[in-house]
Amino acid sequence: MRDGDPGAYADLVRRHAPVAIRTAALLGAGADAEDVAQEAFVKAYAALGRFRPDAPFRPWLLRIVANETRNLHRSAGRRAAREQRAWAATAPLLLHGAGPDGGDVAAAVLGTARREALVAGLGRLSEPHRQVVTCRYLLDLDEAETAEVLGWPRGTVKSRLHRAIAALRAHLEVDVDA
Amino acid sequence: MPEPTLTDDLRTLGRAAQPDVDPDLFTARVVGGLPSAAASRPRTGRRVALAALAVLVALVATPPVRATVAEWFGFGAVRVEPGGPPPPGEPEVPPVDGGLSLADAAALADFEVVAPTALGDPDGVAVADDGNRVSMSWGSGDGTVRVDQLAGTPDYAMVKTAPRLRFATVDGRDVLWFPTAHRVALVDEDGDPAAAFWVADRTMLVPLPDSTLRLEGPLTYAEAADLARSLRPVR
Fold first, then answer.
1. What is the helix (H) or strand (E) element at residue B167, kind and residue range?
2. Residues A37, A17: contact at Cβ < 8 Å?
C-alpha cells in the first residue's frame, strides 16, 4: 500500500471514514465535513510515504482532518471570527444531532435540557479548551491521540483538559443555580 | 454539586453527532479521486470505449463523484442519485404482460439475456426499445417479482433516486442493493429524465458483461441475492 495501491487504501478509508467525518464536523466543518474528510484522505494518501508504518493511522489522519478543518475558516479573518464560525457550525450538530436518528439518540439518553446545557457550556469555553474537550470526550480519543491531533505536547493536553472540565462544570453549576 | 457523569454525557453527546454518510459511497468518492487510481486506468475514447466496456455509471451529485463510482464499481446503464427525497406513496411492481418466450427475447435482445433459474419460467416476457431492454415477471399483485435487463450503453439509461443504498458482493459481482422503495425514471441521451418518476420496490442492481440487470420485488436482501446467484444465460 505504501506504493500507492488504491484498492488497499479503500479498506483504510472505509474503516476510518466515520470518525474522520465526525472529527471534521465537531471541529467546525459543519455541512462541509464530508468534503473536508475527503480532502484529508486524499492528502493522507499522497503523504503515505512519510507515514511510519508502525505508527497508528487514525491520529495521523485525524491531525490532517483537523488542519483541513482549520483551513476551511482561514478566510474568516481574525482568529476570534474564525473560532466563532467553527463553533457556529458545530453547535447545531450537537444540539439537533445528524442523520435520521442522531438527535433522537442523544435526546433519549441525555434529555433536551441536559443537552442544551452542555452545548451552552461548551460554547462558553475558550477555543483551546473546547478543542481539547471535543477530541478527548466528544470524539472519545485517548490522551496521546488528542495530543497528536491537536499538535500539542502531552502535558499541555493534560493541563488544558483539567482546566476545561473544571470550567465546564462551573458553567453548568451556574446555570443550575440560576 | 459534583457531576460524576459529565464526561460520560459528553461522550454521548459526541456519539449522537455522527453525520449521516454512507461509508461505501464515501470510500468510492475518495478512492476514485486518488491521482494514481485515475492514472492507472487507461483513458480511452468516449462513446466507443464506454460501449466496449459496456458499463457506465454516473453518480450525478457532482462531476467528480460521477467519474468515481463509474471507475470504482463499474455499473452500467443506471445512474444513481443518492440522497434524494423519500418517494411519495407505495411502490408498485408492474407485471410484464408480454407473451414472448425467453428464447424469443434472447434472439431479439442486443445483449446476452439472463434469467434467475430459481424462479422457473416467467409469467410474462417482453422486449422493448429496439432490443435495448428485456423485461420479465413472476406472479401478480403485491407478490410480483420483476427483472429488467438494460443494454449497458450510455445512450439508454435509467435514473434512480435512492435515500439509502448499499454496495455488496454477490457471486463475485459488485451489486447495488436498494433496501427501500425509491424513485426511478428513464433518462434520454442527454441524461435528462425522459418521463415522470415511478416508485420502485426493493431492488438489486447486478452488472453483467454487456448489460445491467435490475431485480425488483418484495424481497429481502438474502432472497434477492439467492435469485442473483441463480442467474443463467438464456439459450
1. strand B166-170
2. yes
Please report which confidence band the pLDDT of residue A121 belongs to, taking 50, 70 and 90 as the band edges: very high
DSSP-derived 3-state class of residue B175: strand
Which residues, in sequence order, are bridge partners of residue B176?
A: B167, B205
Q: How far apart (Å, rounded) are the C-alpha atoms in residues B81 and B83?
A: 7
Q: A131 vs chain B: nearest CA distance in angstroms?
A: 13
* C-alpha A77, offset from chain centre: 21
Burial pattern A77-114, b for ≥16 Cβ within 10 A else e, equals eeeeebbbbbbebbbebbbebbeeebbebbeeebeeeb
CA A99-A103-A109 angle, 5° bins? 135
| Residue B94, pLDDT above cutoff 80 | yes
The residues spanned by each domain of chain A are 6-177
> Closest approach of chain B CAs to the CA of A110, in angstroms?
7
- Hey, how many other C-beta atoms are within 10 angstroms of the C-beta on B163? 18
| A103 contacts on B by Cβ (under 8 Å) | 16
* B129 pLDDT higher than 50: yes
Q: Are A2 and A49 in contact (CB under 8 A)?
A: yes
Grid coordinates standing for B161? 433516486
Cα-only R_g, chain B: 20
Please tell me which residue of chain A has the smallest CA distance to B19: A98
| Residue pLDDT, tens place only, B207-226 | 888 888 999 999 998 899 99
* B230 contacts: CB under 8 Å, gap ≥ 6: B116, B117, B118, B119
Looking at the structure, give the CATH architecture of the domain made up of residues A6-177.
Answer: Orthogonal Bundle (1.10)
Residues in chain A with CB shorter than 8 Å from the CB of B16 are 94, 97-98, 102-103, 105-106, 109
Q: What is the complex's ipTM, to 2 decimals?
A: 0.89
Nearest CA in chain A to B1: A173
How far is residue A158's CA from residue A136's CA, in Å, rounded to a whole number? 10
